[in-house]
Amino acid sequence: MSKRFFYIFIVFLSMQAVTGCSTNPATGDNQFTALMSPQQEVQVGAQEHAKILKQFGVYKDKELQNYVSNVGKKVVQYTERPEVDYKFFLLDSPVVNAFALPGGYIYMTRGLLALANSEAEMASVLAHETGHITGRHSAERYSRSVVTSLGAMILSSAVGSAGVSEALGVGSNLYLSSYSRGQESQADSLGIRYLSRSGYTPTGMSAFLTNLQAETALQAKIDDKSSSNATNYFSTHPATAERVSKTISEARQYAQQGIVKHAPYLRMLDGMAYGDSAAQGFVRGNSFYHPELGFKFSVPEGYKLKNQPSHIMASAKNGATIIFDFANNKEHATPASFIKHTWMKDQAVSSAQNITINGMAAATASIKGSLNGKAMNVRLIAIRWSDKQFARFQIAVPSNLSAPQMKALKASTYSFNRMSKSDKSRLKPYRIKLITSKAGDSVASVASRMAQKDHKEQRFRVLNGLKPHDKIVANRLYKIVTN
What we know:
four-stranded antiparallel β-sheet, 17 helices, alpha+beta, globular, Protein Transport Mog1p, Chain A
């Protein structure tokens, strides 16, 4: 390509960026969204919606689903884009999260629902996500990313460097990526506008964001980390102190009187699943139970168990790590054959040893591996769960692990078993329960009723939006977590 043609092409791209701009009715901004039309937004949203439902599933409570949808419809009735078909879904996830897809799809998790303490707070999240849609932020990001991508490819060709596009961070799914700081700020402003227009108190957003900061700090403390690495609302909607302050300031521009609905909102949550559900499996102490799939196992004391969508992980401060998941057995292989020829077919594996774990045929082998840059021995265990599935353990073992610690890891493998009917009836997921406080109740006395065994008082404060020095008010509804 000649330099002359290259410059002509760049000028062409620049002209397209200018001529493709339009005025957004919600923001009044001149916006470049030419490469994703409103019709394409609907198509993209429908395609991704199917994936979202497959990954998370909707929470199976029709009354709560209708409640979220009805509040959402109230929030969007005065937007500047009435032609959009807004749809609202409550997802069966314990993670505190909410997000929107192009075309009017808005999602909220039951984890977020549990954290909010009024209908106004919940409405503020739906209003914020509505702001991303009316602001056409996905279309804007996508359109600009395509132009940047094309420019990067031409520039790469002109200067002879294939790394240019990588350096610019061009991705194929930018319309689903986290928003820019400006877009987040704009969605907050629009959200407060929609809150006020629909009759809610405009302070609902700052109240929710303040509690969300407390939740994130608590999770970091529980995880013994400076910040939580879980995918949550903050990962795509960073709530800095500046952002909270801005929403407080902007709310003052609107009438302060409005719908709050504290007690009626809490009553809607009574009995809702909290944390992982039976369909996802859940952690209790140092054990993991999955009533729906019917298995259980334990890990050594001191290990932190994490339930992920694709696997379960337990880790210790000494670096030892346990990863558990299931794998298909299409070839109907024996456990030893599965390890050597399917699971580790491209790696050198020591001879697999046949074992039996609680009546189930199994095999174990070891390989050399690494974790977080440290060399480790990795113990592999495959347990025949059914004709079509193997349960798998991968245990990364540091070289300096003591004999008692090794014995405890081995015991974890042999603790894997099927849940009995008694187990399934006795072990239930956590749920939200409402209580009415009495005169003389304290945070400590009420928090002692929380089902979790650690950080009871802090968990109770965050769950109910109480600041560090807030006290219990008599004859008021509060949320606790029970078995």
